[in-house]
Amino acid sequence: MAKRPTELAYWVDERPPPLPLLLLSLQHFALVTIFLVVAVTIARMAHLDAEAGSRLVSLTMVAGGIATILQCLGRGGVGSGYMVPATTTTILLPPAAVALQQGGLPLLFGMSAFAGLVAMALSRVIHRLRPLFPTEIAGFVVFMIGLTVMILAVRQLLGMGGAQGEYAHYAALGLPVLAIIVGLNVWGGRTLRLYCSLIGVALGYGLGLAEGWISEADLRTLAAADPFEVPVPGGWGLAFDAELMLPFLITGLAMALNSVGAVTAAQKANDAEWKRPDMANIGRGIFADGLSNLLAALLGGVGQAATSGAVGLSAATGATSRYIGFGVGALLIALSFSPKVATALLIMPPPVIGAALMTSGCFLVMNGVQVISSRMLDSRKIFVLGIALAFGLARLVDPQFFNLLPRWMQPWVGSPLTVAVVLVVALNGVLRIGTAKRSRVRLDLSQLAPERLSEVLTEQGQIWAAEPETIYRVRFALQEVFELLIQHDMVLEEAGGSRYVDLQTRFDEFTFTVTVAYAGIPLTVTTARPTEDEILESEDGARRLASFLIGRVANQVRTGLRNGRCELTLAFTA
Fold first, then answer.
1. Domain total in the chain
2. Is 112 helix (H, G, I), strand (E, B) or coil?
3. Are 104 and 349 a contacting pair, CB within 8 Å?
4. pLDDT in tens, 8-54
């Protein structure tokens, strides 16, 4: 059962009061609508007029609202049940450009529906792929998502990629807004921390207006926008092209991996004692994302994906209640009926967008680092993570090189996130070859060096990426076992004075099991705590205490005889 983190004001199943719920929902609504720029980009790529473009954005908001509610609801095998809002994603842009060129919006919507079906199918087998997504890989996915968000944030904040003389103009707005958000989060107390991003964005609009970021033309467009208009679903139709199956199959896979990272981040944010991803829960989250893409295509909106940025923001503000997600979904659907609201969101100054994204990106990156560092890593794992990170950053540093790759490879290398995540999963699968989940070593108690046992366990812990705390518990218990065997001459002496003990270890991601096998006197382990008098006055007091400590630190203890040899098996929950 999950343990409530102390820093949270509203936990996953806690319902905030009406006013805080509304304000927190507005805060996340402002964040997720930032990504509607993807829908705007697709509208421009499709050469839609203003009316059709506004309709596309509105229907995308409807799809996002439905997707967010499904994800947060977590019922009937659909949705993770965590506050993981949905929004449009840049993952879709590379194949969307090809689909629009070859068949317009009908082909894009048809192939987006196919990508959604791919994600839905993958969700049903993701739990069987658990070896490909161990804890450190899930942490890396969260890290790369956070890094991608922060890269986008810095570009928006400082105007990178634009005219060189504009940097100061961008910084003059973006840095004060970022300072306001960070200051309120750190020093503003519980209430202001909850709404730090919303306050920062609101002040950003005011500063942007004063500094000329919002032009008179923008204000005229806003004034001319209709306050209410019902978006009519569909109308563009659906088409299918077998030649585009591979790019959109990869897109479905990339969206599923994005969901793995987002839901993993949400799980960790809601459990103070989080240890590993719950793959069954992640599978339900992926299914919700896939279903949302299918529904978006049928409605005539742009495909949806879980947004880790909102997960990072919820961790930053200390409010992870899924009821906030219901509020976000309701706002997306309700405000999709107002072109004026969509217009107001689309004129948000880029530096303000960058400041809001930076806040969530920071927490995502550090969450990923914490997850990765919670595991012991051997050279294989280090190569897997390091090479994937290097190629992901290379996609950022020299995108032109990747743009020159063959067309069929473009969906695989469409973004730093896609490059890094696809590569880390592939490398993990390849370098797992030859890694046994069982080991066996024979130790001679007559000449056992104290550090030898520690070396054996540390080496296995690194190979299997076990938690350091688990290895510490195993080492403590085995040291007590070996001391008892040595001090009480419980292992028979063989020719030459040797006293051999076979140490077998086994790891399955959930349990670290060790078996000590030897010829000699059986060792009994008890869970009954010896009294102080029994420890101090009984000749057997030290043995009773050691036996109790072994049974206490291990989660499960079994003793028995096999082929005339004594066996002691200790199981530790990893």
1. 2
2. helix
3. no
4. 999 999 999 999 999 999 989 888 887 787 787 788 788 887 778 77
CA distance linking residue 335 with residue 349, whole number of Å = 20
The per-residue pLDDT of the chain, averaged, comes to 86
Report how far residue 307's alpha carbon sits from residue 87's, in angstroms, rounded to the nearest whole number.
Answer: 6
Distance between CA 468 and CA 514 in Å, rounded? Answer: 16
Query: Do 260 and 137 form a contact (C-beta atoms < 8 A)?
Result: no
List the domain range (segments joined by +) for residue 515: 437-573
Q: In a 10 Å sphere around its CB, with 0-12 CB exposed, 13-18 middle and 19+ buried, how is residue 474 labelled?
A: buried
User: Among the three residues 327, 355, 370, which one is the final residue of a domain in this structure?
Assistant: 370
Angle at Cα 127 formed by Cα 125 and Cα 130, nearest 5°? 120
Report yes or no on 467 lying in a domain. Answer: yes
206-218: pLDDT as tens digits: 999 999 999 888 8
Q: Is 451 helix (H, G, I), strand (E, B) or coil?
A: helix
Residue 306's DSSP bridge partners are 86
Whole-model pTM: value is 0.72
Structural contact between residues 141 and 424, judged by C-beta atoms closer than 8 angstroms: yes
Q: Look at residues 321, 344, 370 and tell me which one is the last residue of a structural domain.
A: 370
- The answer to whether 276 and 323 have CB atoms below 8 angstroms apart is no
Separation of alpha carbons 447 and 567, rounded Å: 21
Q: Are residues 75 and 170 in the same domain?
A: yes
Query: Alpha-carbon distance 440 to 423, whole Å?
Result: 32
- 357 within 8 A of 150, measured Cβ to Cβ: yes
Burial tier of 47 (Cβ tally within 10 Å: 0-12, 13-18, 19+): exposed
Pair of tokens at residue 494 = 């063989």
Q: What is the pLDDT of residues 439-487, one digit of tens each?
A: 889 988 888 877 888 888 888 888 777 788 888 889 999 988 988 888 8
Q: Which letter does DSSP use for residue 564 in this model?
A: T
Which domain CATH number covers 453?
3.30.565.10
Strands 500-507 and 438-444: antiparallel
**Strand 305-306 relative to strand 438-444: parallel, antiparallel, unpaired?**
unpaired
- Same domain for 360 and 488, yes or no, is no
Q: Which residues contact 51 (CB under 8 A, 6 or more apart)?
A: none
Are 356 and 451 found together in one domain? no
Q: Is 562 helix (H, G, I), strand (E, B) or coil?
A: strand
Q: How far apart are CA 147 and CA 132, in angstroms?
A: 22
